Amino acid sequence: MVEETKPSKSLERNRLEPEDAQEALEHVQELLRRQHLVEDLVHRQEVGDTRGPLVEALVHRQHEAELSALLDDLHPADVAFILESLPKEDRQRVWLLVRPERDGEILLEVADWVRESLIATMDPRELVAAAENLEADELADLAPDLPPEVVAEVQKGLTDEERARLTAVMSYPEDSVGAIMDFEMVRVRNDVTLEVVLRYLRRLQELPHHTDQIFVVDRSEKLLGSLPVNRLLVSDPDTQVIDVMDTEILTLAPLDEAAEAAAAFERYDLVSAPVVDAVGRLIGRVTVNDVVDVIREASAEQTLSKAGLQEEDIFAPVPQALRNRAPWLLVNLCTASTAAFVASRFEETVGRIVILAFLMSIVAGIGGNSGNQTMTLIIRALAVGRINSANVGKLVRRELQISLMVGIGGGSVAALFAWAISGRYSLGLVMMAAMILNLLVGAIVGMAVPLARSRFGKDPAIGSSVLLTFATDTMGFLIFLGLATIFLL
Question: What subcellular compartments does it reside in (predicted)?
Answer without folding.
Answer: Cell membrane; Membrane
